[in-house]
Amino acid sequence: MSQTLSGTPKYQRIVLKLGGEALSGEDGFGIDPARASWIAGLIKRVRKYGVEVAVVIGAGNLWRGQIGIAAGMDRATADYMGMIATVMNALALQDALERIGVATRVQTAIEMRSVAEPYIRLRAIRHLEKGRVLILAAGTGNPFFTTDSAAALRGMEINADVLIKATKVDGVYDSDPKTDPNAKRYDHLTFMEAINKRVRVLDSTAITLCMDHHLPIIVLNLWNEGDLERAVFGEKVGTIING
User: Fold this and answer.
1) CATH number reported for the structural domain that contains residue 109 in this entry
2) Which residue positions in the chain have pLDDT lower than 70?
3) Measured between alpha carbons, how far is 34 from 213 in angstroms, rounded to an integer?
4) CA distance 195 to 198
5) Most buried among 21, 59, 114, 224, by the most CB within 10 A?
6) What are the two backbone dihedrals, phi and then psi, of residue 95, each rounded to the nearest 5 degrees?
């Protein structure tokens, strides 16, 4: 259990970008309800400080478009399948949050009115102001854009203070820390440095969007206990990309 932090959070409204693999089991595929519940608990702890939370979630645990494309599938078709898969993840996370008493709304960029609201910017902001966790699914609603780009775009639209990319690594490195024991972690990068270094943790479109609209990015390890809360309070966690 993480410690209770005192003071006022530095960031009052955040976009939390999760990969679909965050919800998967040990094999990296499918949806593990226990994982969903653990992430829901993290979000609830951030909410207790009054921080408004919007979540953008990927679909890598259910569908990887590159596999279909490699087999000859049309790129747009593969991307639409991925967008639909994100809705399944969003509903799983919504259920986990609601079961621990956290009010939520799921909004989708592709209309599915029987299971979620369509994405409407002002309605999304209103949900946040009412203290609901907003889960944004189906990416941007357009093929050829990643969910990283969707997170950056939604961050602009809802006037977020920061985009937090939660991964399995504790920041941005100059090489793969899994294979290089001498990999160096960056505490800070400018947007241009991140683009020029072609950091793999975020795509260049997302970084460029954030740069153009002055939205800082924090890359941290979702599984490090307490790091998400500490980042919200402005403590040095992971890698911050700004400036």
Assistant:
1) 3.40.1160.10
2) 1-3
3) 37
4) 5
5) 59
6) -60, -45
